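4.2 Preliminary Data

To establish feasibility before requesting continued support, the project team ran the inverse folding procedure on a target of 162 residues. The structure was first converted into the token representation described in Section 3, and no sequence information of any kind was made available to the design step. The complete token record follows.
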């Protein structure tokens, strides 16, 4: 299982229910990595998508504990164990956890690779991704050169679980 996340320098991922920034190049990379694959996300993250609809061209596994809640075009899982049972139907490399904070935290122990877009700035944040730099079982295995878009500098990093 993999993770895709965009963070600021303090590992912030969101503020007041929204992303801190949008980078077109990062959105293209996200699409390229996940198209034809399985994305795993929470209900609140889904609600931030256009029209609150699942991502097209991907299998969407949505974690929600709300009884009876559903959305067309997605598989709803009511617990981590139910989600993991669904994940067993797919190749591990085809699974991508895409948020939000509580889903990242719950599933990080099951993941082997994290694709990070690190923005070289700090933003107001009330949601954070675990700081992989401080977790001894996680190691950065790739760092691409700094890029810039609309005055915003960012880097693509890849971490792997030891």
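Position-by-position output of the design step:
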């Amino acid at each position: 299982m993999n993770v895709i996340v965009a963070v600021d320098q303090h590992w912030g991922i969101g503020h007041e229910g929204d992303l801190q920034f949008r980078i077109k190049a990062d959105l293209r990379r996200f699409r390229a990595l996940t198209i034809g694959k399985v994305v795993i996300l929470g209900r609140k993250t889904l609600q931030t998508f256009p029209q609150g609809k699942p991502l097209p061209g991907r299998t969407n596994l949505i974690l929600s504990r709300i009884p009876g809640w559903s959305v067309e075009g997605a598989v709803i899982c009511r617990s981590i164990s139910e989600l993991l049972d669904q994940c067993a139907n797919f190749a591990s490399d085809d699974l991508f956890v895409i948020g939000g904070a509580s889903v990242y935290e719950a599933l990080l122990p099951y993941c082997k690779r994290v694709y990070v877009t690190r923005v070289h700035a700090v933003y107001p944040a009330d949601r954070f991704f675990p700081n992989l730099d401080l977790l001894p079982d996680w190691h950065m295995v790739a760092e691409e050169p700094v890029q810039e878009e609309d005055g915003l500098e960012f880097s693509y990093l890849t971490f792997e679980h030891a």
